[in-house]
């Protein structure tokens, strides 16, 4: 498909060099999926699930896993649950 010359001239304008599309904000589900992957990485590195009496990072991962497990809508996270932590 040939673009009209006028349209090409508009897009070649130097004023548009810094124009970028607006970034899409991550959804709550995206954040939970990222956190579940982070928890899975931790479990693989330590050979166990995070516990509430560990160091600060472990406590935070424990709390996140507990929250993710309590969510009624964790079905959408199953594809990220490579260690079956949600079962």
Task: Describe this entry's structure for a reader.
It is a single chain. This protein is mostly helical. The protein has one domain. 47% of the residues lie in helices and 0% in strands. Helix 2 (28-46) packs across helix 3 (56-70). It is elongated and about 65 Å long.
What topology emerges from the helices and strands here?
Blueprint: H1 5-11, H2 28-46, H3 56-70
Could you list the spans in which at least 5 consecutive residues all have pLDDT below 50?
none
Largest sheet: none
Q: In terms of structural class, how would the helical and strand content be classed?
A: mainly alpha
Mean pLDDT: 91
The tally of strands reads 0
Kindly summarize this structure in a few lines.
The protein is mainly α. The protein contains three helices and no strands.
Main features:
single chain; 87 residues; mainly alpha; 3 helices; elongated
